[in-house]
Amino acid sequence: MKEQKAWVMNGFVGLLVVLALGAFGITMLVQEIFALGAPALLIAVILLSGLVVVQPNQAMIVTFFGSYVGTLRESGLWITVPFSIRKQVSLKVRNFNSVKLKVNDIEGNPIEIAAVVVFRVVDSAKAMFDVDKYEQFVEIQSETALRHVANKYPYDVFGDKGYSLRGNSEEIATELSNELQERLSVAGVEVLEARLTHLAYSTEIASAMLQRQQAAAIISARSMIVEGAVGMVQLAIAQLQQEGVVELDEERKAAMINNLLVAIVSDRSANPVINTGSLY
User: Does the predicted model carry a pTM greater than 0.85?
Assistant: First the structure.
């Protein structure tokens, strides 16, 4: 199905035509001129049956004896195909808040996730005829797409290890929107935005995963500290040798490296030891 424009006539002009035909027909019947009066009244009744009011941000689906003849989108008073059936479809922007879903991320950890989807109908014919109750279709497909995206990524990562649900909210929202658009295009629905509204570990593993996050954060921080410490030690030794401050053999160089690394990497402040030499 594809939306098309239905035949319409301005409703106010149509009402004037109906009143004129009705007055003419009644006059002819009073004068017993049935050949003109009866057809005029019949045409007036036929035109009157096509009278319809379209509200703003609302589409009116017009079907005639089971056939789709078009859609009315412009608000106002209109006269369309007589003896047709008209059904309303809202074109307003709407929100769908999913329930909290319990799914597994790519690492198998159970998480709770929810999202909000902002959408609107852009093709009323598809929304009415290609799916059964497009509102429910949007709900089911939104939850399905949310589960699929949640299964593709870990809850959280440390360092440059790729995307995560918690650390890359913008990228996840974009992917969720694109996948939803592919699924909902068959229903004539445009996805304006899709974002996560809730993301957390399931209660049964929340405390354990918190400890895991803390441990991973400590390891990541320690790795950065060690990497920085090695660079600082290399720079210090190179500068000492370049400026000729002190001559370092391999043993003294190793001792200096050891002392510098301990002072930099240690989580406690260094306590200097001053060598004053022997008293005797």
Answer: no
pLDDT in tens, 243-252: 666 666 666 6
Q: Tell me whether residue 124 is exposed, middle or buried, using C-beta atoms within 10 angstroms of its C-beta: 0 to 12, 13 to 18, 19 or more.
A: buried
Gap between the Cα atoms of 95 and 67, Å rounded: 31
Nearest partner of 150 among 168, 132, 126, 123, judged by Cα: 168
Give strand pairing partners of 119: 94, 191
Nearest to 107 by CA among 157, 166, 42, 46: 157
Q: CATH number of 94-201: 3.30.479.30, 3.40.50.970, 3.40.50.300, 3.30.360.10?
A: 3.30.479.30
Map out the domains of the chain as residue ranges: 9-90, 94-201, 218-265
